[in-house]
Amino acid sequence: MINHYAALIKREFWEHRSIWITPVAISTIVTLGVLTMLMFVSGFAKELDLAIFGAQNIASDNERQAALTGFFLGTSWVFLLALGFLTVFYCLDSLYAERKDKSILFWRSLPVTDAETVISKLMTALVVIPIVAVLGIIATHIINLIVTSIWVASKGGNAGTLIWGSVPLLDNWAAAFIVTLAGAVWMSPFIGWFLFISAYAKRMPLLLAFMPIFVIPMLEGIFLRSSVFAETVLDRGGLPLFRSMDFDAMFEEEQWRVSEDVASLLNHIDIVKFLTTPSLWAGIIVCGLFVTAAIYVRRYRDDS
Amino acid sequence: MTSLVNARSVSKNFGAVRAVDNVSFEIEKGKILGLIGPNGAGKTTLLKAVLGLTECEGDLSVLGFDPFRQRKQLMQNICFIADVAVLPRWIKVSQILDYVEAIHPNFSRSRAEELLLQTSVRSDAKVKELSKGMVTQLHLSIIMAIDAKLLVLDEPTLGLDILFRKEFYANLLNDYFDEERTILITTHQVEEIENLLTDVMFINDGKILLDSSMDALSDTYVEVMASGEGAQKARGLGPIAETEMFGKSVMLFEGVSREHFEGLGEIRIPSVTDLFVAKIKEARK
């Protein structure tokens, strides 16, 4: 059973090579960006040279930690943004391409049910792509820490304490993992919708997938004079996973002060709040309905 | 259980069109059955029903399974090539072997690799880099490495040149077929397969026109080529079809024994193609 799904998911990596090419590309771009920045600031004073990551002139360990977390967070957001686009295109292609190139009859000639096929694609979008993205984030962090360590050491700084000693690695990575997976589950109604459209569309799945997002609010506005649909969709923009931040506390005495609590990303995450948000579960049910519809369309459609 | 496929009053409608109309037949183990019919006769629909790709009315059992509801179990013991170009273009030969090996309990990878060695298909090539003939060779190598009870071929050699077509059927007969296996095949190129069939079924407008073993066919049908008085006499025996060739009449008879034609002209066993044409014309009258 597990081998079965492993083979199905491996297949997705072969077909959709962007799943692993995208993280590699982003990692390369970020690293090149960091290198350029390092070269650029090399022309300035020594204090500034070291200010980027392991700045000696930053007062406390907490602030250094926060500065590094800031860089880490920036990298992670780039990955998450790319992941979002990747998932949309992956889902829309996953059940459409096999019909377009007519390979569906080959896939269906093997002992795999339509439900197994569709679920393997759902799992790829919901779990595998996020995990690959987190691995990409981790690899990018490690590569760039090594690069900056070499740079700091070459400037006479102590990379051991300034960089590695200050990096809340596990905290950052655990947070990236939780946010990415929670984000994917939070967005699961869209994943389900895209999979359904991918199975259903005769042509132009992208257009078909996004049309209702514009058309339904318009019709709703004209005929019902309400905006329930648009609000529901927009509500998905905010992930209910984070504690509210007390910005005032960070600016004590007109000065930027970061407490230990704030520097830790995990401290901002509230899993209980996330899991007790009703619309999370409503979204999962909607996802389940669309996925079931996708399975039925693949099973009953006879246009091959 | 010797009959692998058992169909009782099977029908399939597409809206108002009756693609398969109340069809009943059986396919026994160890046979090579040719399903022959003009375009739109319902061949592909019938095959899809057998393969569990489409739902149908009536009772249909394949290897004891309900094909539409138990497709996964069915696919462990049944193989099919639906059309030549169906292998995904992006996949590598080695990847497709990996995949089928992981998915299919009855697939022998070493057998597939052995078969591929006889072709010019390299294992690191992508399907899109292969010629149409090579894709079919690849597909056939995979199919022949699966220990299946029933093999279904729907126009397997469409678009291939004659060399590949000959080789395809030679491989199928020599390296694959034995008394434990059963093959169901449809094609337009009837002449190419009529020598390898054990049984033949004609289908037109969703109905079965003929369902017979090849042996029984030569007993039931006689073709007589005659002219003048011989032709007159033969015509009196009620041919089901008559054509002119080189100034002589070629007549096809059903259920009239051979001795009636002694001395009237040249007596032959009709080809499946001629028989098919005659049966279709008869049905369309």
Tell me what you see in this structure:
The complex is a heterodimer of chains A (304) and B (285). Chain A is mainly alpha-helical and 304 residues long. Chain A has one domain (2-300). Chain A has 16 helices and no strands. Chain A has helices spanning 2-15, 18-41, 46-49, 61-94, 97-100, 104-107, 114-154, 159-162, 169-186, 188-200, 205-224, 228-235, 247-250, 260-263, 271-275, 278-300. Chain A is globular and about 70 Å long. The relative contact order of chain A is 0.13. The model of chain A is unreliable at 47-51 (pLDDT under 50). Chain B is α/β, with parallel strands linked by helices and 285 residues long. Chain B folds into 2 domains: 3-205, P-loop containing nucleotide triphosphate hydrolases (Rossmann fold), CATH 3.40.50.300; 216-284. Chain B is 33% helix and 29% strand. Chain B has helices spanning 43-50, 71-75, 93-103, 109-117, 132-144, 162-176, 190-193, 214-220, 228-236, 272-284; strands at residues 3-14, 17-28, 32-36, 57-62, 78-81, 150-154, 182-186, 199-204, 207-213, 221-226, 241-245, 248-254, 266-268. In chain B, the strands form 3 sheets. Chain B has a 6-stranded mixed β-sheet with strand order 5-6-7-3-8-9, sandwiched between helices. A 4-stranded antiparallel β-sheet of chain B has the order 11-12-10-13. Chain B has a 3-stranded antiparallel β-sheet with strand order 2-1-4, with helices on one face. In chain B, β11 (241-245) and β12 (248-254) form a beta hairpin. Chain B is globular, with a radius of gyration of 21 Å. At the A-B interface, α1 and α6 of A face α2, β5 and α3 of B.
